[in-house]
Amino acid sequence: MKQKQLGRTGLSVSIVGLGTAFTGMRTIRAAHVPYEELADSVDEELGVQTVHAALEAGCTLVDTAALYGGGRSERLIGRALRERPDLAARCIVITKVGRTIHGQDYSYDGVLRSVEASLQRLGLDRLSVVYIHDAMGVPMDEVMGRDRALGALRRLQAEKVIDFVGTAADDPRTNADYIETGEFDAAVVPRAWSLLNQYAARRILPAAEKHNVGLVIATPIERGLLATGPQPGNVYYDRNYSPACQAHVGKIQALCQAYQIPLLAAALQWIPRHPQIAASIPGARFPHEAVANAQAAQVPIPDAFWQELEPLIRHWDDCCNFG
């Protein structure tokens, strides 16, 4: 799979990685259930198989967090890497601190404990990137202070426990605030960049370009809508797409069909065409989804397709559930 550099980190990552927020969850009970209520539904065996499938298919970037599955995501990733050291040797795991299923904690000691626990669950002694996670609604000085989360991560950098520091917030406005400080090497950006959502162009991309912050895009296929196209009766986790938005996806899908290109391939390969964006991390609950995502990154797409697609790329507020 094609690799790109993650901004000023210099790390080389696959243009499609594995997002593990829902990995190993056999069912997602409803469209708007708080994530914390899903944490206990992780099937570890299924999750391990999914990680193996992603890595075997060419993904070299695995995104997780202390929040995901209440730590189960990190644990199953650790097991997957131990079982396949050949795959682990070329895998970069990135994780996050500050938010767990018990709430937010951006204290100095809390972040140190969180990183230590993540390392234990992952079976690693060093992390390439650790992101401050979901600091929405928290004053920046309570996150950025020397005696707060960022200070703790700087200490861990000095001790060579982590290499780089990032921001990852489910609210693009919060992500923009942190990227604009210039303090962060990388960012995970959900809800802000896809064929249906270009919110990142307002502040995130200009700030990332200014500071050479490496961007990884989460929710690139809009909870599956850009994987399958519109399907009557489908319920999408944390989304409520209008009929007009779904009809527009149908137009994009028709263009893909004319070129015999999977919609999923167009959606995922469009993301890293922006020079500041290194990769996307579509979620995969099952092995076949991880394989499909990785294969989509490797489908040949001619320049003529991108030229015809350009007029169809527009922003829909349907994809922005942050107010």
Main traits of this protein?
alpha/beta, 15% strand, TIM Barrel, 8-stranded parallel β-sheet, 323 residues, 13 helices
Assign the CATH topology: TIM Barrel
How many strands in all?
A: 12
Instruction: Name the overall outline.
Output: globular
CATH architecture type:
Alpha-Beta Barrel
Biggest pleated-sheet summary = 8 strands, parallel
Ranges with pLDDT <50 over ≥5 residues? none
Topology:
Blueprint: E1 3-5, E2 12-14, E3 18-19, H1 44-56, E4 61-63, H2 72-83, H3 85-88, E5 92-97, E6 99-100, E7 103-104, H4 108-122, E8 127-133, H5 141-144, H6 149-158, E9 162-168, H7 172-179, E10 186-189, H8 204-211, E11 214-217, H9 225-228, H10 243-259, H11 263-270, E12 277-280, H12 287-296, H13 303-309
Parallel strand pairs: 3-4, 4-5, 5-8, 8-9, 9-10, 10-11, 11-12
Antiparallel strand pairs: 1-2, 6-7
